[in-house]
Amino acid sequence: MELKRVVVTGLGALTPIGNTVSEYWESLVNGVSGAAPITHFDASKFKTQFACEVKNFDPHDFMDRKEARKVDPFVHYAIASTDEAVKDAGLEFDKLDRNRIGVIWGSGIGGLTTFTDEVASFAKGDGTPRFNPFFIPKMLVDIAPGHISMRHGLRGPNFSAVSACASSTNAMIDAFNYIRMGKADIIITGGSEATINEAGIGGFNAMHALSTRNDDPKTASRPFDKDRDGFVSGEGSGAIILESLDHALARGAKIYAEIVGGGMSADAHHITASHPEGLGAKLAMTMAVKDAGLDFSDIDYINVHGTSTPVGDISETKAIVDLFGEHAYKLNN
pTM for this structure? Predict the structure, then answer.
């Protein structure tokens, strides 16, 4: 089977340092930090009292109040970023085959805010079960691609990828594979998360995964630094439009980039810690480079996870050095 070439034709972003792609990029190049004291709830009794929250966001800019109440914030974020990506790609769905357009979305946890609020409300009551009828749908991870598809009438492949911090990357690789195998012409992909609440911060604190540098939030995320003490929780959404090259050219779409390979693997090592030798990371990168038909010497940029956790950062470093050797140092310089 001849594989199709896959390109990126649209971008969307809702982040702690900008609510659109242009705002996000401007903040990135100017070194703006999104970390600040938590405002979503009273975190004064928590070990970590800061996070990277989305700012100045109103879901009613994207949907009416009735519809907004039916979905969790992680879906609000998904709708915002995908709306921008669809517009950026110039997609006119009435002129396209909606049966050939899908949504593959990533989220590590999904509707944690909904779950936290509903369970807390029940616990405060007298035991009588009074739950929101949308409780379960609001909580499900794959409700996000469901709402995106219903918003635009898209009947192609529709599901979520859930693999913790790698969820969005896995979703994009799945989307890439579906298109190059000819099972779709266009797929809206990316991911969203909304876990800055009591359960999210408290749970990660219990794991000793979060930085507790409350006196200096803006520099708390310091991957590969000898003084790193954990990651900083963030929220938001990012979306990209993936499209077969021939379909994009036929409709005159602008093309940002081409995706040529992907790789996925498991450490098969520990429930939270990366393998100390970076075996899973090495396998994923090896598979991606092989899938793309490239050599390691062809790579001129590596974007790492950078967990800011001791084991995670060490395992990533070992994986890159083992695979790229002297070339890794050239990339760094």
Answer: 0.95
